[in-house]
Amino acid sequence: MFEARLSQGAVLKKLIESIRDLVSEGNFDCSENGLSLQAMDSSHVALVAMLLRPDAFDPYRCDRSMPLGISLKSLSSILRCASNDDVITLRAEDPADQLSLVFENPQNDKVSEYVLNLMDIDSEHLGIPETVYDAVVHMSSSEFQRICRDLQQLSDSVSIDVSKEGVRFSAAGEVGSGSIALRQNTNVDSGDEATVIELQQQVNLTFSIKYLSMFAKTTPLCGRVTLCMSSDVPLLVEYKIDEVGYVRYYLAPKIEE
Amino acid sequence: TATQGRLDSFFKST
Predict the structure, then answer these.
(1) Segment A92-123, tens digit of pLDDT
(2) How many helices (H) and strands (E) does chain B have?
(3) Nearest-CA residue of chain A relative to B6?
(4) What angle do CA A151, A153, A158 make, to 5 degrees?
(5) How many CB atoms lie within 10 A of CB A154?
(6) Which label site among A129, A165, A179, A206 has the fewest CB atoms less than 10 Å from its CB?
(7) Percent of chain A at pLDDT exceeding 70
(8) Facing A126 at nearest CB: one of B1, B5, B7
(9) ipTM for the complex?
């Protein structure tokens, strides 16, 4: 038996909206560690790993670890029937062939019940090694989204250059080229706007903007984003979900020939 | 030109 009640149902709505364009289906694993998902996009270029810990829910009950094979498109369709301020309860029997979703409004006078048919998904699980990154950039998630949107007009690739001066995003294509440099700025009014860099050594890597733009759809979940980079390893883009979870994206770099 | 890498080259299947 799995049962998890999420008082901020909007978190689940935003979470599914943020990943549904990257992955079409996946096994959500429920266990004593919480509700998690690891899934690669169909071209094996990007991977999403998300976790909502048990303390994201009240109550959270999972008697035995089990996968819930879910079509993200179908789950998204059902979650669109929930209002942003609804409480969402997820429930599944063991073994699970259906996921029940109950939406309760804050006034406690409307209850909607939906059932999602689950799928058998034969998914590959990748071991992600612990990595000490050469450069870590903490910045505003909406600024990151804006940069991806702007540079996507010029090219399908972006170079990210991190030095002690700051971080520079640059793109070049047929129409011309552009670059956006952010300096470290911890003295700003809003904590969300600060750009903070932890640097072991300078890095310069090239990535597909299409994927970065898809990751940036997670912006409504968190005002901050962290970019972790080392030469010749996948980029890690992390959004924290309050203190109760995260959405992490890994993106294989483009390799210069 | 740059070639898009794949995650399989970096992360091993478990």
Answers:
(1) 998 889 999 999 999 999 999 999 999 999 88
(2) 0, 2
(3) A45
(4) 35
(5) 19
(6) A129
(7) 99
(8) B7
(9) 0.95
| Helix locations, A155-195, DSSP H | none
pLDDT digits (tens, 9 = 90+) for B1-14: 689 999 999 999 88
Residue A121 dihedral angles phi and psi, to the nearest 5°: -120, 125
Distance CA A178, CA A158 (A): 10
pLDDT bin (cut points 50, 70, 90) of residue A246 is: very high
Beta carbons of A244 and A53 less than 8 angstroms apart: yes
* Nearest alpha-carbon partner for A246 in A7, A73, A15, A68: A15
Q: What is the spatial distance between Cα A30 and Cα A249, in angstroms, rounded to a whole number? A: 20
Name every chain A residue with its beta carbon within 8 A of the beta carbon of B11: 47, 126-129, 234, 250
Degrees to nearest 5, angle at CA A26 with A20 and A30 = 115
- Cβ of B4 and A208 within 8 Å? yes
How does residue A193 score in pLDDT terms, banded at 50, 70 and 90?
confident
Question: Closest approach of chain A CAs to the CA of B9, in angstroms?
Answer: 9
Specify whether the CB–CB gap between A197 and A229 falls below 8 A.
no
What's A110's DSSP letter? -
Distance, in Å, from the CA atom of A64 to the CA atom of A51, rounded to the nearest integer, reads 17
Is the pLDDT at A187 greater than 80, yes or no?
Answer: no
A113, amino acid identity: E
Position A257 scores a pLDDT of 72
Shortest Cα distance, chain A CAs vs residue B12, angstroms: 6
Only one residue has tokens 């879910």, namely A70
